[in-house]
Design brief:
homodimer; 6-stranded mixed β-sheet; 3 domains; 6-stranded parallel β-sheet; 12 strands; 434 Repressor (Amino-terminal Domain); 336 residues; 12 helices; Rossmann fold; DNA-binding
DNA sequence: AGAACTTTGTAGAACGTTCTCCATTGTTAG
DNA sequence: CTAACAATGGAGAACGTTCTACAAAGTTCT
């Protein structure tokens, strides 16, 4: 009451016990009588005591988990966050997000900062780093990596099953009668391995092969413009595809524009499918067939794995979350 | 090198000085010779020392600023974040984001958590709280509130000039020759005051009055469905409006769908304008006229004000950021 | 040359927790 | 009745910083 904060000492004084005893009660540690329990709990309530996380950090846990975001514009990152916080809602862990930026350097700065703030564990979403850097971080703090295939021994990983996602799309289109199905992917100069778009492209190839069809992959970029350019090139061909599977919804929107401009109606002349199921895909005016990643499950899984690891698991786990295909108005049978 | 972290004591030992001296150098405090400076800096580099934020927190600054996000899906929140981090990039402050959720209760939990982690200052984005709760937070830590009109004495505020934004739209439409211009706003049951949509609606009324026109406000909700329903109702009238100004882009998308379904072409039969200039508004297929808030400037301003306040300013400041109108394809002269 | 400052470096006490011992009980066994 | 043990509460040392005093040394002024 003197200055600012209510400390454990204030509570101890009020309850007429030692600070050590209060600490035990707060932590739910062994060796407190029922009487002590109620006495202290009451004092805590009366004074409105909350443990000071920074002080805790100096000794043990800080009950803070960090989520490093590589790209705050990533359309399904809110879902992942929701999954994480939802899973953690009834625990005493708090989640803080760190905008890491796109550059490896800024991402490293952010993870360092999180370690300096003694966070108990880190979830890294689509980190752009070498495996060595990731391993170094994982050596300092429990880590779960989201969105990178091919996890390592030092940390856990949660990925969308992009191979399956691509197969769902191809199967769907083949089922409708399509045989000339092209795929637009993203051209990446980074040396990082196992990025989602690569796996999607590979899944597409596998699925086409499984149906005995020839694959046709064009690499532009995952932007509206990239989808537009890619589609324009594909649609200018003699045996133009009857369906285009874009590796990201934003590119699929560009494909739709290209179809518009070419005077092709969707889905009669051209079927279009995307990936990510971003919010506007469901708008009736767009109604884009897309693969949904269930970011909620991904986030919740990441949170679960992280807590497990903090609490002692050392064996590394990789969890693969199955996507689902959301069929909407942009895919249909090809015109004969 | 023994166990985990390099501490200030390790640096002091290496440089052959006291820990107090190292602390001075690290903090750039007064009273260090050039020789001491270089000696210590070298030791720091050699050992790769980084100050432990949690330990710092126990004494003074933690060099951490918190940004509470009420809604991670808010389309321009990435811009605000970028503005904040951009402004702070060359300082030693780190920014951490706290997903506060939509509920007052969860938001309070998050701000508490941020205070418990002794953050040096807080930016609250569109907080859903009573003024009293805000004041209580501001009493504990420097605060800048973003996106709520009518700031209080205890904290700084940064707002988009929503009155001006609404006026820009009305002026534009009137300039094109429209006289029957309707506005779709959001229906809020919350007791909070000064929320952006209220100010936009008020700005719309003022602007209409200034042109000697009758206003026409319909309250549904800022969702695609809300825009659709609102537009359907407006378009069913005898003297249907020739232009609809939706208070949010997402609602404007619903308006566009309603126009589609009513067989009205945009902008010939109906002009449509939105607010927020969300990413897809610029897609050629949508090409929505909208008001741009420049989240970048808003974020940068908030960061600047917060640092000023942390460093001692007590007089309260409210900063109003001017929006701009982005004219695209959904607005045009009315058909005579 | 001494007094009065200024500059530079250090000791050591905080900060608010946790956690390892210990001391004091009470209980059970012999 | 005493020895052995379990249960409970408390003392006090960490944890890694900052920061107030203060001591030592150097400088300037008379």
């Amino acid at each position: 009451m003197t200055s600012g904060r209510v400390t454990i000492a204030d509570v101890a004084r009020r309850a007429g016990v030692s600070t050590a005893a209060v600490s035990k009660v707060v932590r739910g540690a062994y060796g407190v009588s029922a009487e002590m329990q109620t006495k202290v709990t009451q004092a805590i309530d009366e004074l409105g005591y909350r443990p000071h996380a920074a002080a805790r950090a100096l000794r043990g846990r800080t009950y803070t988990l960090g989520v490093m975001l590589s790209d705050t514009r990533n359309p399904f990152f809110p879902d992942i966050i929701e999954g994480v916080t939802g899973r953690l809602g009834d625990t005493e862990y708090q989640v803080l997000l760190g905008p890491g930026g796109i550059e490896p350097k800024t991402q490293a700065r952010m993870t360092d900062a999180m370690i300096d703030r003694s966070m108990d564990g880190l979830i890294l979403i689509s980190p752009v780093m070498t495996d060595a850097e990731l391993a170094a971080i994982a050596a300092a703090v429990p880590v779960v990596v989201v969105g990178r295939h091919g996890g390592a021994a030092a940390y856990d990983a949660v990925v969308d099953d992009d191979v399956m996602g691509a197969r769902l799309v191809v199967d769907h289109l083949v089922g409708l009668g399509h045989t000339r199905i092209a795929h637009i992917t993203h051209l990446e100069r980074a040396r990082a391995q196992g990025l989602p778009h690569m796996v999607r492209a590979e899944g597409y190839r596998q699925a086409m092969r499984a149906h005995g069809l020839a694959d046709d992959v064009l690499a532009t970029s995952f932007t509206e413009e990239g989808g537009f350019e890619g589609a324009r090139e594909l649609l200018a061909r003699d045996d133009r595809p009857t369906a285009i599977f874009a590796g990201a919804d934003i590119a699929a929107l560009g494909v739709l524009r290209a179809a518009d401009e070419a005077g092709l109606s969707v889905p009669e002349d051209l079927s279009v499918a995307g990936y990510d199921n971003i919010g506007i895909a469901s708008l009736k005016r767009i109604s884009l067939t897309s693969v949904d990643q269930d970011g909620h499950v991904i986030g919740a899984t990441a949170a679960r794995l992280l807590v497990e690891r903090i609490e002692g698991r050392t064996r590394s786990v990789t969890s693969s979350v199955s996507p689902t295909l959301i069929v909407r108005g942009t895919t249909g049978p090809p015109r004969r």
